[in-house]
Amino acid sequence: MKVSPCPRLATVLLTFALTAARGSEPLAPPAPEAALAITTGPLLQTPSDSGVTVTWITNRNTTAVVEYGPLGDELQSAFSSHDGLIDGNDRVHGVALRGLQPGATYRYRVVSREITHLRHWKVEYGATVTSDFHEFRVADRGRRDFAFLVFNDLHDQPGTIPDLLKVVGARPFEFVVLNGDIVSYLESENQIAAMFRQAAASFAATTPLIWVRGNHETRGKFARQFPGYLGAPGGRYYYAFDQGPVRFVVLDTGEDKIDGHPEYGGMVDFFRYRREEGEWLRREVQSEAFRRARYRVVICHMPFPSARAADAQRQSEKGVFLGMADAYDQFGATLENAGIDLMFSGHMHVAAIIAPEAGRHSYPVVQGGGPKGDSRTVIQVEANAAALTATILNAAGVTVGTCRVPAKR
Q1: pTM to 2 decimals?
Q2: 299 near 307, Cβ under 8 Å?
Q3: In whole angstroms, what is the distance from residue 394 CA to residue 166 CA?
Q4: Where are the beta strands (DSSP E) in 204-351?
Q5: Cα 281 to Cα 149, 291, 333, 398, 400, distances in angstroms
Q6: What is the rounded CA–CA span in Å between residue 384 and residue 207?
Q7: What is the pLDDT of residue 171?
Q8: 171 Cβ contact partners less than 8 Å away, ≥ 6 residues apart
Q9: In b/e form, how buried is each residue of 161-170, taking b as 16+ CB within 10 angstroms?
């Protein structure tokens, strides 16, 4: 009897034969590993009148050292440590420079040394990479006048930064604020790095950056890693700092919807968070630094004092968009009683000067524009002994609005 060959067995034998034939061929060499490199930065964050934080990212785990010093002086080294352990074996680096002289100019560079093996009894190092030198001037509480810029709602368009800088005049600025929704959703480090790289190329290697969290930075699988890139004081999104005659209060307004909204999947707790932030704010406005300031300025993403803005969102889906209403409940009365002079916000994608509203806020709110075309804006701010002056410029260089607040103190 004739037996037909098994099709499955024939397939197996053919596969074996082809595999054996390939086995006799030389294997392709492995792809060479990329050289150690600084992929992002360095850039400056968290300015104060005694220091600044230097941030950079490498493509492999390294140590993190900043070499710095006043112009013409010898360099010294700074690194970060926590609980007795020097920070290292990481790709994201932030080193705070402390004890700097107010108003002085310093030069700096960053140095990263690869850690090839970190064992309990021995640390082994590999290559070293060093940045170019950059210079910066330390903030000075004693200055009588200075300028700064505010961007908002870039929504993953880093090219907007150089576009808008083209419409800014020659007046030097002391720092730049990215006032929320700079990304649309935080899905990966790449989005943060893209903004950092553009900022560093445009200004942030020499002029500090302040990134304020907007509601869109709270979303996405990478949102919980965001603080590790900012180097904010105390690791919080809300804090205060001084520059010249101004006390700045940075607030985190959180999400714009109720915590139970399906979009958040039961993973947010902003109503309690804003209550805790409100307790901090009540302490801040009683501080000596706040009380002695000539001007008191708030920077936050959502324009919560504005009844019109809050109502516009609330009416879009009743009972859902209550984030601004809650922010007003937690912060509004404290700010009003403390004598705030000016607020900067974004969120609504419409540039506007929001006039004081009786019974809600006695200070104007300067609101930046949106992420597209000529709706994109930069807010240019001048502070001196006489007044605070904010000018909103769109991407075409047209002045959208101007607000001048005379000194009251």
Answers
A1: 0.91
A2: no
A3: 11
A4: 209-212, 239-243, 246-250, 295-299, 342-345
A5: 24, 13, 11, 36, 31
A6: 20
A7: 86
A8: 147, 380, 382
A9: beebeebeee
